[in-house]
Structures are given as structure tokens and as C-alpha cells.
């Protein structure tokens, strides 16, 4: 190979390199623009028409001007109930996998179970809820059924985030606490959990955000209607949530202002999910910065 | 039990009671944590039992061949051929991945290899944002924004179909694939890169010939993870695919996939009908596919850790 040919090849490589770098940046810019445009579309269309009235009023079947009060309430109510059911078990399972599980075949099987459960499509959890609550217990489509089915969906994800957070706790602090004569549970309660708490709470926020926007499960287990009243805490009332309401308005509603209701509902949905994801982390974030100094 | 032994021990030594209590709590919570993980497995058992039990009733009424090989799904006439719907599911997933994977892996390379630190720290949370948006909102945007555009561009009357669904799904699985690939690429040891640079490679050459092959298993796992999400997604798909039980022969044929077909029909059927059993069979099929993909990811992960 002559020197000139070699340098030409090298120049080619360098040119390709520059071109590819530019292309990667271009791709990144496009995707970022797409995301920004997406958020602006949802929020820009929906937020301007948003009033307190809309957030608290009862939906109308025929006349325009209905609100989303009861469905928004149901969303939070079902989310709360599902977390009450799933957090103790999910976090407990995560702690078991991180702290207690011995290295053997049984643990391997348990791990496959958790992973399989987390891969189950949400619609299948909906069908399970339908089979258990509507068919087996014969209570129809209720808030209770929706909340428990949603809890099933949350479980594997909670277990995973807890396990990761607990595993990230340094061994030194655990060893130090054992050296003081603590039992395993004392060590978990007083040393491991306080350190892992930040990770666990972040994980819970992610799970809550996902559960808040979940629609397939709720559609099958809590139904397409509400009891028509605000602040109805009855567990056996039908429990349409905001996400399901968006689907209903978009596909079946006959009110004149359906399009506008859908726009505003979508905006509310996205804002609440973002708040759940971001807002709850701010105190932790501040705390973290304080600790670092 | 702990109170009794605690009070018994008190006269002799106050600390003995505390010790017993600590031991008791330790034992108690150990069983509680074990119970939690078993409860999780129990839920998995419930899923398989309830879906499987009903699903298998299908074949008391129609033959296996009728379900898996017939393309005719008209439940009103008692014909439950799911082949068309199954094929649609597979082609929708393939189309989604064909669009999402190049972009997602490209983004992962940009984030992990090329971008400066500030850009990296900005892009990761922005991608997480995309994961947080509810699927119903993606479906809603697809229906109100994407479909009118597709209608104008293609000249079709409807615009619903595989292409619209695949575009929506591609956007949804993009962050999943990107973040896991990003992790896999970041895990490639620094010495590999340094060795390649020392031989005079450009960054493109290092990325293409060293980093991506070394992160290959992780990237494949990321793609499979995206696949499970795409196959199981329901509400976003149901809003844009057209919901007609037929084989999608063009990109704009209104069609339906396993998930969308289930969610549109299950609320309207009686429990003790072949129709309902067949819908459960479809759910069982979804479950089987997801489990298979998860086992595949585990297998890839194990092989990867054996090698290093």
C-alpha cells in the first residue's frame, strides 16, 4: 500500500466519522424535538381550557359543559387503594429477594416468577380481575375489583425496584451493624431501609405514575361508568377512572364538546403523571444535596 | 409469646426480654418477607390458572386446527379462526421493531458514546418522561394527530391500520429499548475502546466494530424487552388499528391484534360461550409469548455472564 492510498483511506474514515457523528446528533435532535412537540401538543391544547369547574363537575351525557370530577376522584382513590394493597407485599418480596434469598434452585424459580409476572400484559390482569370479581365473587365491575387488579400489576415492578434499592446498600454498613450484634431484621429496619428509602420511594413514584395512567385493567374491572356522585368512597361502586374516561369520550361519547373534554382530560392525565414522577422526588433530591455537602 | 417470656425474664435481667423480643421480631419478619414473595408467585399462579382453565375449554367446542389455522373470525357465526389476528400481531410487532430499533440504538450510541456529559444527563430523564406518559394518551394522539396526517399523505379514506399502530408503538417502545441498550453500551469495559483507539480507529470504527458487538447481547435483550411491551400493549393500539378482525394485507387495512380484539369484545360476551373461551385462549397465547421472551432474555443474560 502506497502512502497516498493509505492517507486517502484514512481521510475517508475521518470523513465518515464526522458524518456519522453529525448524523447521530441529528437523530438525537429529531427525537428530542419530537418529545417536546408531543408534550406541547398535549398540554398546549388542553391546559388553556382547564378550569376548577371542569375538574370538579360531574360528567354530562348529552349536554355540553360536563366535567371530570368523579372520574378524577376515582383515579386517585383506586391508585391509593392499589398502593395500599401492593406496597407491603411488593416491598416485602423485594427485601426477601435482596436480603434473604439463598443461592439455590428455589431462588432461581422465584426470580423467574417475578420476571414472568412483570411481563404479563396488562390486559391479562384485566381479564383475571374480571374472572375473579365479576365471575367468581359476582360483585360486578367495582372500585374494589379495579384496585386489586391494579395492585397485581404493580407487584412485580415494586418488588424489582425494592430489590435494586436494597442491593445498592453498601456491605460495610451492614457488616458494621451485624458487628454490633443486631439481628437481621434489626439491621434491615434501622440500617438498610433508611439508606434504601430514597430508591424505594423513587420506584414507588414510577409505579404510581404508571398505575395512574393505566386503562386496560380498569376498563375491564371497574367499568365505563361512575356512581355519578362526587366523593363516593363506596368500594362497590363502579369506578371509571380518568384514563378510561378519555377512552370513553374519544370513542363512544355523544356530547358536543367531546373533543374538548378529551383534550383537557389528556392534559390533566399527563400533568398528574408528571407531577407524581417529579414532585415527590424533589424533597428527596434536596435532602440528597444536603447530605453530599 | 414474647411478652410472656419478657416478663418472666425481667426479674433476672432486663435485657434478656429485649433479646427475646428482637429474636421473635426477626423470625416473624423473615416469614413475612417469605410470605410476600410467595404471594407474588401465587398471583402468577392465579393468572395462569384462571386464564388457562377457561382457555382450554375452547377446544371442547372447536378443534385446534380451527383456532390456529382458520382466518375466519366471525363469532356471530360460531367461527373462531384466530390465524389472521395472530399473524397481524406478529407483523405489527415486526413493523414496530423495524422502525424503533435503529432509532433507539442510534440514540443509545449517542447518549453513551458521543454526547458530552451535560447532554447525557439531560437526555436520560427526557426519555424517562416518554415512558411515563400513559398509553391511552399515545392512542389519543395517534387518533387525533397521526391518523389525519396519514390520511392526507396516503389518500386512504380511513388511515387506521398497521402503519398507524406501528408508528404509535414505535414511539412507545423507543425509550425502553434505548435505555437498556444505553446501559449495555456503558457496561462495555473501557479497555476495549482504548485498545481500538490505540490501533488508530476513529470513533465510528470503535463504535461499530468494537462497542456494539461487545454490547450485542445487551442490545438484543433490550430489543426483546421492547417486543414484550409492543405485543402486550392494548389501549394505544386499539385506538388506531381499526378493529376489524381480518388479515392485514396492506399497511392501511383496518385490522385487529390479540390485545385489541380481546379488549373490544370481552365486555360484551357471556361467560359460558365459546366466544369467551376463544378470547381467553388468545390471552393465554399472549402469556405464552411473553414468558417465552422473558426466558430468552434470561438465557442471553446467563450466556453473557458465562463468557466474561
Automatic annotation (TrEMBL), chain A:
Top-rank lineage group of the source organism: Bacteria
CDD domains, alphabetized: TM_PBP2 (cd06261)
Keywords for this protein: Cell membrane, Membrane, Transmembrane, Transmembrane helix, Transport
TM regions (residue ranges): 21-43, 76-97, 109-133, 139-159, 191-212, 266-286
Domain called ABC transmembrane type-1: residue spans: 72-280
Major localisation: membrane
The keyword Zinc is annotated on this UniProt entry: no
Membrane topology (UniProt): Multi-pass membrane protein
Subcellular localization: Cell membrane
Record InterPro entries: MetI-like, MetI-like_sf, Phosphate_PstA
Family membership: Belongs to the binding-protein-dependent transport system permease family. CysTW subfamily.
PANTHER family: ABC TRANSPORTER PERMEASE PROTEIN YQGI-RELATED (PTHR43470:SF4), PHOSPHATE TRANSPORT SYSTEM PERMEASE PROTEIN PSTA-RELATED (PTHR43470)
Name the record gives this protein: Phosphate transport system permease protein PstA
Encoding gene, per UniProt annotation: yqgI
Amino acid at each position: 500500500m502506497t502512502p497516498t492510498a493509505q492517507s486517502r483511506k484514512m481521510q475517508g474514515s475521518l470523513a465518515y466519522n464526522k458524518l456519522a457523528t453529525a448524523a447521530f446528533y441529528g437523530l438525537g435532535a429529531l427525537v428530542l424535538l419530537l418529545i417536546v412537540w408531543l408534550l406541547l401538543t398535549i398540554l398546549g391544547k388542553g391546559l388553556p381550557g382547564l378550569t376548577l369547574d371542569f375538574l370538579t363537575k360531574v360528567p354530562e351525557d348529552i349536554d355540553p359543559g360536563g366535567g371530570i370530577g368523579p372520574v378524577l376522584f376515582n383515579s386517585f382513590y383506586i391508585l391509593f387503594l392499589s398502593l395500599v394493597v401492593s406496597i407491603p407485599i411488593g416491598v416485602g418480596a423485594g427485601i426477601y429477594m435482596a436480603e434473604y434469598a439463598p443461592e439455590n434452585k428455589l431462588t432461581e424459580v422465584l426470580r423467574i416468577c417475578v420476571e414472568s409476572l412483570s411481563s404479563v400484559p396488562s390486559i391479562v390482569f384485566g381479564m383475571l380481575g374480571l374472572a375473579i370479581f365479576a365471575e367468581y365473587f359476582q360483585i360486578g365491575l367495582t372500585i374494589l375489583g379495579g384496585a386489586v387488579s391494579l395492585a397485581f400489576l404493580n407487584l412485580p415492578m415494586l418488588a424489582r425496584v425494592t430489590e435494586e434499592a436494597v442491593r445498592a446498600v453498601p456491605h460495610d454498613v451492614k457488616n458494621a451493624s451485624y458487628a454490633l450484634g443486631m439481628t437481621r431484621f434489626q439491621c434491615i429496619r434501622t440500617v438498610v431501609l433508611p439508606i434504601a428509602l430514597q430508591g424505594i420511594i423513587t420506584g414507588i413514584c414510577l409505579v404510581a405514575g404508571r398505575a395512574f395512567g393505566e386503562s386496560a385493567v380498569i376498563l375491564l374491572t371497574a367499568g365505563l361508568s361512575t356512581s355519578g356522585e362526587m366523593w363516593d368512597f363506596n368500594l362497590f361502586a363502579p369506578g371509571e377512572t380518568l384514563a378510561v374516561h378519555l377512552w370513553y369520550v374519544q370513542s363512544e361519547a355523544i356530547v358536543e364538546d367531546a373533543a374538548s373534554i378529551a383534550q383537557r382530560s389528556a392534559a390533566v392525565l399527563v400533568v398528574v403523571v408528571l407531577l407524581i414522577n417529579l414532585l415527590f422526588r424533589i424533597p428527596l433530591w434536596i435532602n440528597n444535596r444536603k447530605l453530599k455537602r | 409469646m414474647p411478652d410472656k417470656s419478657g416478663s418472666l425474664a425481667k426479674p433476672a435481667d432486663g435485657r434478656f426480654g429485649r433479646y427475646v423480643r428482637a429474636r421473635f421480631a426477626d423470625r416473624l419478619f423473615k416469614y413475612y418477607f417469605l410470605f410476600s414473595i410467595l404471594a407474588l408467585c401465587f398471583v402468577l399462579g392465579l393468572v395462569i390458572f384462571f386464564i388457562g382453565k377457561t382457555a382450554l375449554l375452547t377446544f371442547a367446542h372447536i378443534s385446534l386446527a380451527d383456532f390456529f389455522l382458520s382466518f375466519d373470525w366471525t363469532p356471530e357465526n360460531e367461527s373462531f379462526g384466530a390465524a389472521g389476528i395472530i399473524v397481524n400481531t406478529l407483523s405489527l410487532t415486526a413493523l414496530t421493531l423495524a422502525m424503533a430499533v435503529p432509532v433507539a440504538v442510534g440514540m443509545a450510541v449517542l447518549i453513551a458514546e458521543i454526547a458530552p456529559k451535560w447532554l447525557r444527563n439531560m437526555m436520560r430523564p427526557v426519555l424517562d418522561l416518554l415512558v411515563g406518559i400513559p398509553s391511552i394518551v399515545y392512542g389519543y394522539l395517534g387518533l387525533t394527530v397521526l391518523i389525519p396526517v396519514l390520511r392526507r399523505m396516503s389518500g386512504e379514506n380511513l388511515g387506521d391500520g398497521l402503519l398507524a399502530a406501528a408508528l404509535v408503538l414505535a414511539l412507545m417502545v423507543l425509550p425502553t429499548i434505548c435505555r437498556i441498550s444505553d446501559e449495555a453500551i456503558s457496561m462495555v469495559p473501557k479497555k476495549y475502546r482504548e485498545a481500538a483507539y490505540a490501533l488508530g480507529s476513529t470513533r465510528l470504527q470503535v463504535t461499530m466494530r468494537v462497542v456494539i458487538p461487545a454490547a450485542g447481547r445487551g442490545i438484543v435483550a433490550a430489543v426483546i424487552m421492547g417486543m414484550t411491551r409492543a405485543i402486550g400493549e392494548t389501549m394505544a393500539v386499539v385506538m388506531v388499528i381499526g378493529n376489524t378482525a381480518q388479515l392485514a394485507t396492506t399497511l392501511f387495512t383496518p385490522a385487529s391484534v390479540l390485545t385489541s380484539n380481546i379488549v373490544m369484545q370481552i365486555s360484551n360476551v357471556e361467560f359460558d360461550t365459546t366466544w369467551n373461551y376463544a378470547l381467553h385462549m388468545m390471552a393465554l397465547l399472549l402469556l405464552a409469548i411473553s414468558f417465552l421472551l422473558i426466558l430468552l432474555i434470561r438465557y442471553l443474560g446467563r450466556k453473557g455472564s458465562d463468557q466474561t
